Amino acid sequence: MNHSKKPGMSFALGANHLHAVLRVDQIRNDTLIQLVQHWADPDSRDDILDALDELAAVVQGIAREGELDAAIEQVEDVAGMDTAQIEVPTLDARRLHDELSAVNRVLDRFNPQRLVPTSREGGAAA
Fold it and tell me: pTM, whole model, 2 decimals?
């Protein structure tokens, strides 16, 4: 369950309490918008369809090493997609830090490395 004030950009604990979940809806939204913007251009539509068909074939088949990455990059290139990143305002960065810290406190219960002192704590690093 995500208790964030902004669930669309948040850290939460995974259902099994063994991993963190990062949710950033804005990246998905931006990706779809960029795809559709270029889709509207008739000259680009066929190239995008071809790239999506190739990606679908790779996903449905047994992909060789690097094949999936190449197919994804092809879609990104023909659709003119930007890097999947967003700017995080200071207040959200602080909130995300607090959320991740809370998740890490739970995750550290299962981390054998947490008992080993780090070089910053004056001990030898593992």
Answer: 0.70
Q: Which amino acid is at 23?
A: R
Q: How many CB atoms lie within 10 A of CB 118?
A: 12
Q: Which residue has the tokens 């270029």?
A: 38
Distances (CA, A) of 83 to 11, 30, 73, 113: 21, 10, 11, 34
Other CB atoms closer than 10 Å to residue 104's CB: what's the count?
14
| pLDDT (tens digit per residue) in 36-78 | 998 888 888 999 999 999 999 999 998 788 999 999 999 999 9
Spatial contact of 24 and 111, defined as CB atoms under 8 Å apart: no
* Bridge partners, residue 24, by sequence: 9
- Asked if residues 9 and 24 have their Cβ atoms less than 8 Å apart, the reply is yes
pLDDT above 70 as % of the chain: 89
